[in-house]
Amino acid sequence: MSWVYLVSAGLLEIVWAYAMKQSQGFTRLFPTAVMLATMIGSFGLLSLSLKTLPLGTAYTIWTGIGAVGAFLVGIIVLGEAVSLLRVVAAILLVSGLVLMKLSAPA
């Protein structure tokens, strides 16, 4: 169940990052509220996953999901620039996440 909590926390991290962008410096109420709610949920789920997962593994995967997810949302939803180096960096991040998962105890 810890892995479900961790992946869910990572997905919520993507949502709060996007909502933070949409809040335009916390000047828009709804995106700011979404950001705060999903941030609390993300931290709460990360905390639950840490009951059984190693800190280094859980934190790395949590931030990696958020980083790669925010990168994809930026490109797909916000129309941010795509370059070969950015794509290679994202692939390296995902590779690191896979290796971290494979190295973690079940």
UniProtKB/TrEMBL annotation:
Gene Ontology CC entries for this record: plasma membrane
TM annotation in the entry: 27-46, 58-78, 84-104
Superkingdom of origin: Bacteria
Subcellular location: Cell membrane
Keywords on record: Cell membrane, Membrane, Transmembrane, Transmembrane helix, Transport
GO molecular function: transmembrane transporter activity
Chief localization: membrane
GO biological process: xenobiotic detoxification by transmembrane export across the plasma membrane
Signal peptide coordinates: none
InterPro entries cross-referenced by the UniProt entry: EmrE-like, Small_drug/metabolite_transptr, Small_multidrug_res
Family to which the UniProt record says this protein belongs: Belongs to the drug/metabolite transporter (DMT) superfamily. Small multidrug resistance (SMR) (TC 2.A.7.1) family. Gdx/SugE subfamily.
Name of the protein in its database record: Guanidinium exporter
Taxonomic source organism: Ectorhizobium quercum
